[in-house]
Amino acid sequence: MRKNWLDALPPVPSLLLASLSVQAGAAMAKGLFPAVGPSGAAGLRVGLSALMLLAVFRPSLRNLTGPQWRAIIPYGVVLGAMNLFFYLALARVPLGLCVTLEFMGPLLLAVSSSRRVLDFVWVALAGSGIALIAPWDGHGLDLLGSFFALLAGACWAAYIVLGGRVSQLISGPAVVATGMLFATLTVLPVTIAGGGLGRLTPALLVSGFALALLSSAIPFTLEMNALRKLSSRTFSVLMSLGPAMAAVCGLIFLHEQLSFTQWLAVALVVIASAGATLNARKVLPAIEN
User: Fold this and answer.
1) Across 26-54, average pLDDT
2) Cα-to-chain-centroid distance, residue 174
């Protein structure tokens, strides 16, 4: 059988490209904030991603049972809230620090059921990183933006738990496609209230499609390719590079300069996440911000 280009792509470059695509999409979203606001950008990203995924995977909603509906609706709601809070944070906090704060959710989830001393060391290491970027003097990092980033992290942790539950009831990409539908229904009222849709132009709509491709369609495909070829442990460790990748993308695409202390904080969270996920039982789900 003839292989396509994706099958020929090695798993590690595939996953690194997926992370780059996600963070480049976040940088692009931040560029849309002056025109449509963060809630408008979230609505465009989630809504257009839902349209793409539903068109490609065509999930059969009529055949869903009661338990499947009860599992997938909260999964989609949390997915939408995660994207919305992340963009609200991104409007106030540099991309690298925003992702660093958000990673606290999956990290704490990874060690929440552990009783080993080493896992508490990882939490302490990550906490030290967060302490380094905390605005103890009341200046510097935006407090509300930091709070939104932590909320996005909490939603990410809930998304992991709910995603594991719903994947036992519904198999395949239909889970994400259907979840995105309910994520759109969650975000859309906030998008409408923020007036983002009223400022939409054909050019912004094209940018929205590019955002959806970069943030969802492309990384989802690349990560699925990597998951087929990598062990769960390797996949988890590479996923932990997210904050560092976000900081680099923020520097390249948004010219967001981080101080030495902030870079150190990012490094500490990356090391803590990698260490914790080495022993975690579950892999972080494919969808990132």
Assistant:
1) 91
2) 19
**Three-state SS letters, 124-180:** HHHHHHHHHHCCCCCCCCCHHHHHHHHHHHHHHHHHHHHHHHHHCCCCCCHHHHHHH
* Least confident interval from 39-43, 121-125, 140-144, 196-200: 196-200
- With a CB cutoff of 8 Å and minimum separation 6, the contacts of 32 are 40, 41, 44, 204, 207, 208, 211
DSSP 230: S
- Does some domain include residue 1? no
- pLDDT for 273 equals 83
- Report the chain's mean pLDDT, rounded to a whole number: 83
pLDDT tens track for 150-194: 999 999 989 888 887 887 777 666 778 888 899 999 999 999 998
In a domain, 4, yes or no: no
The rounded distance, in Å, linking the Cα atoms of 252 and 178 is 34
Q: How far apart are CA 240 and CA 91, in angstroms?
A: 23
Q: Is residue 110 part of a domain?
A: yes
Q: Provide the domain count of the chain.
A: 1
Half-sphere exposure of 289 (CA within 13 A, CB side): 39
H helix or E strand, kind and range, residue 239? helix 232-239
Task: With beta carbons less than 8 A apart as the criterion, state whether 12 and 226 touch.
Answer: yes
Residue 232 belongs to what domain range? 11-278
215 occurs within a structural domain = yes
Residue linked to tokens 């606290």 = 104
pTM of the model: 0.87
Q: How far apart are CA 75 and CA 41, in angstroms?
A: 21
pLDDT of residue 1: 43
